[in-house]
Design goal:
The chain has one domain: MetI-like fold. It is about 80% helix and about 0% strand. The chain is built from 15 helices and no strands. Helix 4 packs antiparallel against helix 5, helix 4 crosses helix 14 and helix 6 packs across helix 8. It is globular, with a radius of gyration of 24 Å. The mean pLDDT is about 80.
Amino acid sequence: MWTYTLRRLLQTVFVILGVTLVTFLALHIGGDPTYLYISPRASAHEIEATRHKLGFDQPLYVQYGRFLDHLAHGSTGDSLTYHQPAVDIVLQRLPATIEITILAMFIAILFAIPFGIVSAIRRGTPVDGGVMAIAMLGQSMPRFWLGIMLILFVGLSLRWLPISGHVPFLSLILEGHPIQAIENFPRALRYMLMPAFTISLFSLARNSRLVRSSMLEVLSQDFVRTARSKGLRPLTVILSHAFRNALLPVVTMIGLEFGFLLSGVVVVETVFSWPGVGRLVFNAINHKDIPLVQASVILFSFIFVGLNLIVDLAYAVLDPRVRLS
């Protein structure tokens, strides 16, 4: 187990280095990054002085080494828009993004597992067809369109939920105000529901099909037929025998769900004017705020890589064949 863990940790280090290299090179793809930091009316002398001050006149490997050094100290530079450390700005917006991502993950898992199980045990019936039709619809529906439709119908026509805004919840917990966070939760939930559902629908649909296919594979195996022949209750056979052995793909689904859902926050946060990292990245790209984009991309990448590592280690615990291979 320790050998497997060390091997995965070493692989994770190389992945993180690859992410930082790609993020660093993105700064130079569009040409000399010096022009991002100066006025368009700057003289040639000012341009050269700024290039030397920022170190852009040095070889790329020297610049990359300095970039890694700053990153090791938790910095990607100051935001060109806010004139503050970019990492600090991203961390300020991160709790709002985590709020709707966790709620979206909860919604996706809560419905995907029972939908997939019911569809598998009712294979070939109208129930199975209905669930799979909904899953296909959910996977083909663009998130921005769904968000706009929810705003128009649920928010403006029915007036059930607010169409924009944010009530702090997780940030209050992190700041040491749990009582105030609990008091805010009912109002915060009303603001989170529509963006969280918009993010979760694709994952809900995809994971329902994953659970269904995994359950169908297990239900056709001999040990399930043996359990049924012993006279065990159908619910016991499904949950204790079939679903338990179909758990590995589901563990992957749950472990990586947070990372997959994070990939959908940019569009959804923009549609709902949600003050999270996704909307921050969208505005940073529009304003060519490269340090802010770099900080966001690296933070999201670290989260995704960390979740992959946790899932791989969970695999090794659940199935010894993984670590032995």
